[in-house]
Amino acid sequence: METLFEIIHEDAELLVVNKPAGLVCHPTKGDEYSSLVSRARLHLKTSVTPHLVHRLDRETSGIVLFAKTAEVARALGKIWEARGVTKEYLAIVHGHVLAERGEIDAPLGKDDSSRVAIKDTVRPDGAAAQTGFVVEKRFTHVLPSRPEQPFTLLRLRPLTGRKHQIRIHLASVGHPIVGDKIYGGDEDLYLALVENRLTADQQARLILPQHALHAASLEFEWQGQSRRFAAAPEADFEKFCRGC
């Protein structure tokens, strides 16, 4: 039987899981293993209906929270709407980020010039967006048939929750996330993926099969207590950071 997901925490109200990279959150036309929600239904069987409180992009791994009742889902939704949640992400980006810490403050909106319908960009008339960052590690990596290249491992805290916010902000300051097919500099990589024409050369240019973004932790007040849930990145992510 296929493994559904890593369970970080479970009680009568909450189910917290570590979503694998490459898995969509919402059900599709695929089999019962093809989305995070359908896997949660399998895990909970018929006794409980899982309510997805928030979501991650398909290629982003990490912490996702389910509520086990509609009442709990509504209460958690209010916390999210009030920005009462502290989120931390880990990302591997191209280049050495010079500042030890900082904040990217740039409004985001639809990229009207892109062939990718879901792509957004920094634009002055966009919605306000801020992302804080701290450098965890700078390192280099020797890749096949290429000279040694610089990379940085960042810990990020989005202060707003715009679509693709972290990915766009990092690309906008010249440090796109490794493996990002939309914001990595050549959006044809994304189109090639969805059109089933991604070549071996294109895959090699991406370096990693999924973009290197991981939702590392969530923290919020719940039932009078501070709750924090955390999960480590996947093996490919950690191996790359070690420079193996």
What does this structure look like?
- This protein has 244 residues and is of the alpha+beta class.
- The chain has two domains: 1-82, Pseudouridine synthase (2-Layer Sandwich), CATH 3.30.2350.10; 86-219 and 235-244, Pseudouridine synthase (2-Layer Sandwich).
- It has six helices and twelve strands.
- Strands 1, 2, 3, 4, 5, 6, 9, 10, 11 and 12 form a ten-stranded mixed β-sheet that branches. Strands 7-8 form a two-stranded antiparallel ribbon.
- Strand 11 and strand 12 (225-230) form a beta hairpin.
In short:
By secondary structure, this protein is an alpha+beta fold. It is 20% helix and 32% strand. Strands 1, 2, 3, 4, 5, 6, 9, 10, 11 and 12 form a ten-stranded mixed beta sheet that branches. A two-stranded antiparallel sheet has the order 7-8.
Class computed from helices, strands and strand pairing: alpha+beta
- Spans where pLDDT lies below 50 across 5 or more residues: none
CATH homologous superfamily identity of the largest domain: Pseudouridine synthase
CATH topology group of the largest domain: Pseudouridine synthase
- Please report the distance between the alpha carbons of the first and last residues: 31 Å
Sequence-ordered SSE layout with sheet pairings:
Layout: E1 6-10, E2 14-19, H1 36-44, E3 51-52, E4 61-67, H2 70-81, E5 85-94, E6 101-105, E7 108-110, E8 120-122, E9 130-141, E10 149-158, H3 165-172, H4 188-194, H5 200-206, E11 213-222, E12 225-230, H6 235-241
Parallel strand pairs: 4-11
Antiparallel strand pairs: 1-2, 2-4, 3-4, 5-10, 5-11, 6-9, 7-8, 9-10, 11-12
